Protein 1
Amino acid sequence: MGSLESLNPATGEPIGTVETIEPAAVQAAVDEIAEVQPFWAELAPADRGRYLERAAEILAGDVEEVARLLSSEQGKPITEAYTMEVVPTVDGLRWVAAEGPGILADRPVKMGGGLFTGKRVAHRLEPLGVVAIIAPWNYPWSIPFGETAIALMAGNGVVLKPSELTPLLGERIRVAFEKAGVPEGLVRVAQGGGEVGRAVVESSVRKVFFTGSVATGYAVGAACAERMKGAVLELGGKDPAIVCADAELDNAVAGIAWAGFANAGQTCSGIERVYVVADVAEPFLAGIRAAAERLAVGDPGSWDTEVGPMISEAQAAIVTELVDDAVAAGAERLCGGPVDRPGSPGSWIAPTVLAGVTHEMRIMREEVFGPVLPVVVVEDEEEALALANDSEFGLGASVWTRDRHKGERMARRLGSGMVWINDHAYTHAAIQTAWGGTGDSGLGRSHSRFGFYECCEVKTVSWSSPRARDFWWYPYDETLGRAVRAATGLLYGGAGPRIKVLREGGGSLLRTGARTLRGGR
Ligand code: NAD
């Protein structure tokens, strides 16, 4: 067993240490969770919900402490720690607890009056067992917290592998559930780097909920497929925003600035491409530049700070490389770029707006994951849609227009998992809505009823009368053949042929009916 030190990205100071797990010890930890999980699964969903309601109440009282930890371990402004992560998880717990029992309830299946008359069938959602949640550093609280809440509500045990950059928050998630009385050992945290993540995937967990980079996502998906287990993959993004000529411009500027620069742009569904229609390009560019220049970059612990440090020097270097590449290829930097904050060893990038960007530049194709908005001026909405869809990613997209019908028409044509009209990305905080992408942005969905389904095995349970035998059982003979032919005409044919059918096959039908009731030949 080793240890992992957590550093504050703004100050570089250590803020805590956790024990790591050896990859070879991961299976034993999963086995221990598997011993506790069946007892949890025995509880009725409504009873499990009571634990989650209690967790919400306790967390509501701990909000300040968790938000401070989040801001100091990850570097996001304290306001965002509240608005984008901690408070939404309190709200989310309440939704999961309230709606979970209904979503998890057995669903009777309408069998209709045809072939399967008399059968009583239901779909039952059963827990998978122990599931793995492997988390990134950028939303290190809300992503694994929401997934853990839904997995628990569905009756599973959880092994959580937090990012090695935010281990204390991972530990705090376990504590949040245990404080509410969730059995000790039902949620275990496996601390460490990629090798621990790999061991978790290769263990006997039934499913992996992975959020992270595309490259790791492919590796996790392949490892799961080899072991016949499922994976939900929430990967990178390159979200476009389309500003139509009829956009409410001030609002579009404010919303796009927020969705591009929040969390210092380190958001999977942050806006990374802006397509603005030529008619409004000039005022939009002036507006977005002014909005970017107004933002306060600084100490994430201060209420006034709007942009904190980058998570690491390496992440800042990627951003700088892509911006420099665009500028070298002819883009114009309207504002922003790396800044020095004397006495502060973190890496800081002031919100950056690029004009004169073209579709071929790397900055329009690769994930930047920094506070940068590259803006492309397009002729019209058609061109914007074509460019927006020309990407390997498909997480989110937004359309900024006053015309709701047009927005919804455009939403249908955007190839992404989520489309927001006059907003962007906010539904990650609304756990009642499905989250996930297409293409390289991943597979499956988290949150919402669809996130519940990902945490369950669907079992079809059918009741048949013990006295009646099905007509398709043996023996096969001409009587059965004629009866089936007649039944097809009667059940599915039009009114005209029915009389003919009855005349020719009525006798066989009656004999077959009697046979099914007699239970023999
Ligand atoms: P990452 O892929 O480097 O790491 C993610 C997690 O996987 C970490 O806990 C890491 O330790 C673990 N890991 C690394 N190698 C592993 C392996 N071989 N097997 C199993 N686990 C392994 O990603 P990151 O840098 O932490 O996160 C940033 C990325 O996450 C960005 O690309 C971002 O777009 C994406 N992201 C996506 C969403 C979404 O909802 N789609 C949300 C947040 C972040």
Protein 2
Amino acid sequence: MRVLLVEDERDAALMLAKGLREHSFAVDIAEDGPSALEKIHENTYDLVLLDLMLPGMDGLDVCRQIRREGAVLPVLMLTARDAVSARISGLDSGADDYLCKPFDFQELLARIRALLRRGPALEDPIIRVDGLNIDTRDHTARRGDRVIELTAKEYALLEYLARRRGEVVGRAEISEHVWDETYDPFSNLIEVYVQRLRRKIDQPGELPLIRTRRGEGYILGGEDDVS
Ligand code: CA
């Protein structure tokens, strides 16, 4: 899943982005409100982590503008002020949740997971696809009794395909949600990662779960009659 982190303090932003990437998120960073809005217009994000205190246009203005433009993407506001009034203004501006700095990183991850579950139907933290279980809490996957060891990026790709199980998912969508803005659309990175995932998930003798639909994309699970 792809996150836009809006934070003007560079060191804090880089540290937070590093932690999120280690937990399989694709992360872009915007240092102020206008560039955040620009990135939201250009890219497809699954969630925005929005610092309240930004120079110029503050987090509340950014959030109001996101809502004014009708974007439904979840916004988690980060605030240094633990004042009730700051929290109320954050929620009133259209934020879905807030977290006061300094926060515990595990709590941030839990809140992100909760917000991502509110999206298109994912009440259960475990996504089940034909005997393949993907646990979105600890980022583990198992097929039957077999634990599948995945890197952060392999997990991110698998989780995205699993959230869209049974659907043909195109390369453009995959690059939008699994990679950040440094992704080169002319690279074959997606094919490489799909091959790696396939080798780990589909062992000899097992029903292949990741299928390719030529020219269209990839499908995880679902019907068997897909060529
Ligand atoms: Ca700040």
